[in-house]
Amino acid sequence: MQDFLYRGVLTDLRVRFSYAVTTDTANNAVLAHNCDPISAHLLCRCIGAGVLVAPLLNEDERYTLQWHYEGALKSVVVDVDSKCRTRGFVNPPNLTDLVGTEEEIYGPAGHTKVVKSNSKQVLNSGETDAGLLEVTEDLAYFFSLSDQIETAMTVMVGFRPDDIRPVSLCQGLMLQALPDCDLEQFDRLRQRLNHPQCRQLLARQPQVDNYFEHILGALQETDGGRIKYDIAAAPQPVFHCPCNREQMLQLARNLPQDELRDIRQKGEDLQISCLFCSRRYTIPADDIAALLG
């Protein structure tokens, strides 16, 4: 099954939603950074969350989502644009040998930062405490507090012993309250989203075309009746990094001049890797000489 993203509105409840399967996108991110299981799980959840918020963007806009914690997990950064082109990285990419408990992953505190920009400028940015110490819940809290839009979000991830396709499933759902939404009713939906019945459905590969209706059926248990909704397809999620050689040359220009002179005198090539996709770029010694003028 190819990755997909749907967006829509639960019309009677005045709730906006986005629903996505991002298995291939998450798998490519994990392979790009050679993540171990713990780091891979966190990166997949953040990639899925990034895709879920993509429908909030206008044309030519992008989100840069940042999670920073005080535990062994230092940071996760995900970049997504309005066409659902997504990239990201986790630091460190290998957490298994560094932690013994979940508490050690996040540590005692953290913060979440979201930057919205377009090709010309930063449009706005905000930061909140990441006190829930769970990446999707901390991002939902950011939108609830900073953007004052009540938000609930969950992303389920599965793995398999396969070196080529280690991610077997990455599937998520986001709910946001629209104006005139009954917030008590929304809170019941938020609680229901974490109910085992909903989590089990989101942890399974969709098998039928109307699988989303089964998820809605699990959500409606607290409210009764049939949930009416409008739904539309959004751009297909894809792992994509627009890095190029010119960007890497610009990074090299920012290195200390003494360091560049030392590399040039040794006749060595300069190796630079993109943080978002791990693609390696080689800058020959002659180009380093040009950087030095």
Structural features, described:
The chain is of the alpha+beta class. 33% of the residues lie in helices and 30% in strands. It is built from 10 helices and 13 strands. The protein has a 6-stranded mixed sheet, with helices on one face. A 5-stranded antiparallel sheet has the order 8-9-2-1-10, with helices on both faces. It has a two-stranded antiparallel sheet with strand order 12-13. Helix 6 packs antiparallel against helix 7. The radius of gyration is 21 Å and the shape is elongated.
Produce a short descriptive summary.
This protein is of the alpha+beta class and 293 residues long. 33% of the residues lie in helices and 30% in strands.
Please give the share of residues in helix: 25-40%
Ends distance: 52 Å
Major sheet description:
6 strands, mixed
Report the mean per-residue pLDDT as an integer.
93
- List the quaternary state of the chains: single chain
Could you give the order of strands across the largest sheet?
7-6-3-4-5-11
Beta content comes to: 25-35%
Q: List low-pLDDT spans.
A: none
Shape: elongated
Please count the beta strands (DSSP E, at least 2 residues each).
13
Count up the helices: 10
Instruction: Classify the secondary structure makeup into a structural class.
Output: alpha+beta
Report the order of strands and helices: EEHHEEEHEEHEEHHHEEHHEEH
Indicate the radius of gyration in whole angstroms.
21 Å
